[in-house]
Amino acid sequence: GALWEEYSTEVQRRMNDPINMGELTEADAGEDKLVIADFGAESCGDAVRLYWLIDPATDTIKVSKFKSFGCGTAIASSDMMAELCMGKTVDDALKITNIDVEKALRDDPDVPAVPGQKMHCSVMAYDVIKKAASIYKGVDMESFEDEFIIC
Ligand code: FES
Ligand code: FES
């Protein structure tokens, strides 16, 4: 049907076989700082957990993994989000928006990766970055500016 065609192959690929799904524990951390952040979308009950290993000397996210009780779009978005975080400083990761995640999931730069009704699912991937950064920095999540655009 038409709706099926509105999902990019990249979304289909990542929801079926996510690259960055998994968890990290203190045993993985060594000298690095482990951050574990949860975020939930109250409207649909979906939840995501983000794991970061951060080099405290440079604030660089060395490893980024996630787990999810989310829909397929949430899984694909979280998988891409985790990938976009890797190698960035925490401050640079904070600049990633849900639109960046969705654009990175497109097959064609001019065609949305998901149907419009599913754009909000990428917002959870954006919110959990803010949650993780707030834990790392020891500040309130609300202290970060909200820059995402829902659709
Ligand atoms: Fe819940 Fe997509 S419907 S995250
Ligand atoms: Fe699922 Fe918004 S309803 S993330």
TrEMBL record:
<protein>
    <recommendedName>
        <fullName>Nitrogen fixation protein NifU</fullName>
    </recommendedName>
</protein>
<feature type="domain" description="NIF system FeS cluster assembly NifU N-terminal">
    <location>
        <begin position="6"/>
        <end position="138"/>
    </location>
</feature>
<comment type="similarity">
    <text>Belongs to the NifU family.</text>
</comment>
<comment type="function">
    <text>May be involved in the formation or repair of [Fe-S] clusters present in iron-sulfur proteins.</text>
</comment>
